[in-house]
Amino acid sequence: MAIGKFFSKPDPSLQDRTPPGQHLSKGFPVLTYGETPEVTADAWQLKVWGLAKEVSFTFSDLMAMPQHDFTKDFHCVTHWSKLDVQWRGVRVMDFMKQVDLNPTATYLMQHAYGGYTTNLTLEDFLKEDNFFAHTLFGEPLSADHGGPVRLVIPHLYAWKSTKWIHGLEFLDREELGFWESNGYHRRGEPWAQERYSDSNR
């Protein structure tokens, strides 16, 4: 990590917003495993299945839901954070008003275009601060940053905020997603430095 040119140590006044081991990014780095999917807003769909009534939402459906602006800090497991990221989108709690969820659901698997997956507990998913984002700093969300739509889970490391979100599979048990199956922590809470699986124990 090139401290100085691209990253800086947090000022003491920002330490209460910067988790341990993190440096502040001067830009907004793009980290992607594999190729970047190219999905237009017209073609985008978000599918719901598993322990919920199966349904699909289009980009127009999402835009018809209540829209909100969000300013949130963003923490990457690779030791950088970006503060005050400005998004626009739909609260998870508003979206879930359109979903008929089975009461036995306790987990979900996020599915992305391109095959990426990551898991969440239902409790972590159904937090007031979580949202589906389609706009970043006043511009349509680019493909590099997960557009046309990504999920944003601000209280967990960024790999839990799935780019190119395509599906929500609700489950009654924990299943591990891509990075969790390859050594990352099951939950990924930044303030506890839950980066890798050895901190599960």
Gross CATH architecture:
Alpha-Beta Complex
- What is the string of helix and strand elements? EEEEHEEHEEHEEEE
- Supply Rg: 16 Å
Going by CATH, what is the homologous superfamily? Oxidoreductase, molybdopterin-binding domain
What is the count of structural domains? 1
Count of helical stretches: 3
Q: Report the average pLDDT across residues.
A: 92
Using the coordinates above, name the CATH class. Alpha Beta
Helix residue percentage: under 10%
For the largest beta-sheet, the strand count, sense and barrel status come to:
7 strands, mixed
Structural class: mainly beta
Low-confidence stretches: none
N- to C-terminal distance: 28 Å
Q: Total strand count, please?
A: 12
InterPro entries: OxRdtase_Mopterin-bd_dom, OxRdtase_Mopterin-bd_sf
Protein name: Sulfite oxidase-like oxidoreductase
Structural commentary:
- It is globular and about 50 Å long.
- The protein contains three helices and twelve strands; from the N terminus they run E-E-E-E-H-E-E-H-E-E-H-E-E-E-E.
- The chain has helices at residues 59-63, 92-95, 122-125, and strands spanning 7-8, 23-25, 45-50, 55-58, 68-76, 80-91, 107-112, 117-121, 131-136, 139-140, 150-152, 165-171.
- It is mostly beta strands and 201 residues long.
- A hairpin with a 4-residue loop joins strand 7 (107-112) and strand 8 (117-121).
- The protein has a single domain, classed as Sulfite Oxidase, Chain A, domain 2, CATH 3.90.420.
- The strands form two sheets. Strands 1, 2, 5, 6, 9, 10 and 11 form a seven-stranded mixed beta sheet that branches. A five-stranded mixed beta sheet has the order 4-3-12-7-8.
- It comes from Roseofilum reptotaenium AO1-A.
- This is Sulfite oxidase-like oxidoreductase.
- Residues 1-23 are annotated as: Disordered.
- Residues 34-179 form the Oxidoreductase molybdopterin-binding domain.
- InterPro entries: OxRdtase_Mopterin-bd_dom, OxRdtase_Mopterin-bd_sf.
